[in-house]
């Protein structure tokens, strides 16, 4: 495994891998790699791909300068995770390599999908994501790109971009990897105080409760309705974590992210909440059982 | 040579051409092919490329519905031009293949380059161009793409997009092919009345005069200044073609398209003018000789 910083070096490695008949698998990351990233890399490796991991903290997708400054940067540790998980190439560019002087191109998905939820609370976030992901996919020239399902809306947005532009890349979503108490792995978790870390387990608890509510729905409780489930969960959050600041908690269609009322088959519960000053997001599918 | 309408068919043909060790050359067009297009196809062929020509009248780049409706569509004749010039594949998709239901992605270059001149007079034009060109380049998976220099600003915008996104495609600009009287070949020329067609030769005359003015500059005439040259040419146009409606006529930097005053080395003269109800554009390089 080697690490390179320049686009031209990636192209050369990719060309050689292709000439050797390899399929290219790509895992875009912002570094601070954890077990969730490692699972993506391992999956790409086990599928037989030549695996490229990008490590790039993308300024364009941060709407909050403090969040950008606080975002952990741990390249040496990241390289160890990559090597261990079976990566073949790490691409760790400087900001000036991705955004050289005069850079002016934007790739945007202009639909309700990017305006809701994360799009609403983090203005400009998705334009930053789609622009950098498009560029990274073009640099990696990959056949398959792997994304964690923790960023559910991001995954939907990337899928739409790739489909709309006929990029010819298969977008693979992989299940969220969780801590033993259920908290979704995130590079931001290290910023939680011990107390906030304890509080944070309310998030997976709420998501699991959504399934319980759906399972126990009766004509009286109406907990097979998205709005009713969301209201229950908000009340639960307020009583169990009064200091948490909720951005959103909703029951939505998994593809369009439009809120659903009557759940006839399945739905996605999505949440973004600030706990101890750290913004955390998570989601899970809930399924109506007959 | 074959013609296909579906993205998947292009991918299959490209894969086979690549497997056979061919480089892919791509000529994007809106059809109504003329000698200018044929020259691009021939150039790609003579460079040894497997040549893909797209024929797609892109609704997204027309700011004027009447212009879109009036744009000539001549696929059978276009196929003959392609075959004759050495194309290997024609890609002639329906609008719904490029813009399926729910399409929402835009590729935009947000810089002074896209705001001036054509960007000013045709709002939304360049966003339409960059989005479709990005998608077509991704479908063709080409090594080289060929564009006529008649659309000088478009060429500069496409170059910026390809550079910004690291698309890994070489953008080749080729000299404008002209009628015997100097009028630039354009698919819109067929819409000129015989009288307007005669008037239209004022355009290359103005461009050539720009070089004459520069050649004959003295400290008194100051015709080595962009603004002075442009003023002279505007007067010439008014006296020779009083019915022509000028959108712009300017002396600019060839790369940034910013107006230049003192011409120290070379510059580009650009013009857009309506003659007999048809909007024509052209440009030429002028060089200061010592």
The second-level CATH architecture of the largest domain in chain A is: 3-Layer(aba) Sandwich
Q: Helix coverage percent of residues of chain A? A: 40-55%
Q: How many structural domains of chain A?
A: 2
Mean pLDDT over the full residue set of chain A: 97
User: How much is the radius of gyration of chain A in Å?
Assistant: 20 Å
Bin the strand percentage of chain A: 15-25%
Most extensive chain interface and residues per partner: A-B, 27 and 26 residues
Largest sheet of chain A: 6 strands, parallel
Number of DSSP helical runs of chain A: 12
Oligomerization category of the chains in this entry: homodimer
Order of helices and strands of chain A: EHEHEHHEHEHHHEHEHHHEEE
Shape of chain A: globular
How would you characterize this protein structure?
Two copies of one chain form a homodimer. In chain A, α2 packs parallel to α4, α8 (125-140) crosses α9 and α11 packs antiparallel against α12. In chain A, the strands form two sheets. The first copy, chain A, has a six-stranded parallel sheet with strand order 1-4-3-2-6-7, sandwiched between helices. A three-stranded antiparallel sheet of chain A has the order 8-9-10. The first copy, chain A, has helices at 7-19, 35-46, 65-70, 75-85, 95-98, 112-115, 118-121, 125-140, 152-164, 194-200, 202-215, 226-240, and strands at 2-4, 24-29, 50-55, 89-91, 105-109, 144-148, 170-174, 245-252, 266-275, 278-287. Chain A has two domains: 2-174, HUPs (Rossmann fold); 187-287, Pantoate--beta-alanine Ligase, Chain: A,domain 2 (2-Layer Sandwich), CATH 3.30.1300. Chain A has twelve helices and ten strands. Chain A starts with a strand and ends with a strand. Chain A is globular. Chain A has 290 residues and is an alpha/beta fold. Helix content of chain A is 41%, strand content 21%. The model of chain A has no long low-confidence stretch (mean pLDDT 97). In chain A, a hairpin with a 2-residue loop joins β9 (266-275) and β10. At the A-B interface, β5, α8 and α9 of A face β5, α8 and α9 of B.
């Amino acid at each position: 495994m080697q690490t390179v910083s320049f686009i031209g070096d990636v192209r050369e490695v990719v060309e050689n891998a292709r000439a050797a008949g390899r399929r290219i698998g790509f895992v875009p990351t912002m570094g601070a790699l954890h077990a969730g990233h490692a699972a993506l890399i391992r999956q790409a490796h086990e599928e037989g791909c030549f695996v490229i991991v990008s490590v790039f903290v993308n300024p364009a997708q941060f709407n909050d300068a403090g969040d950008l400054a606080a975002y952990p940067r741990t390249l040496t540790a990241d390289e160890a995770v990559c090597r261990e998980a079976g990566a073949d190439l790490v691409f760790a560019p400087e900001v000036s390599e991705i955004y050289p002087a005069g850079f002016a191109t934007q790739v945007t998905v202009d639909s309700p999908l990017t305006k809701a939820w994360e799009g609403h609370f983090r203005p400009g976030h998705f334009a930053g994501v789609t622009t950098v992901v498009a560029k990274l996919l073009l640099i990696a020239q990959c056949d398959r790109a792997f994304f964690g399902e923790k960023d559910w809306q991001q995954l939907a947005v990337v899928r739409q971009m790739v489909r709309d532009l006929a990029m010819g890349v298969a977008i693979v979503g992989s299940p969220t990897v969780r801590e033993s108490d259920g908290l979704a792995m995130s590079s931001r978790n290290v910023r939680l105080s011990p107390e906030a870390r304890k509080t944070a387990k309310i998030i997976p608890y709420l998501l699991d409760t959504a399934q319980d509510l759906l399972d126990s729905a009766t004509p009286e409780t109406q907990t097979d309705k998205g709005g009713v489930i969301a209201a229950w969960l908000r009340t639960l959050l307020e009583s169990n974590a009064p200091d948490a600041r909720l951005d959103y908690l909703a029951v939505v269609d998994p593809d369009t992210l439009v809120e659903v009322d009557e759940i006839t088959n399945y739905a996605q519960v999505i949440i973004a909440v600030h706990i101890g000053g750290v913004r955390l997001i998570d989601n899970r599918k809930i399924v109506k059982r007959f």
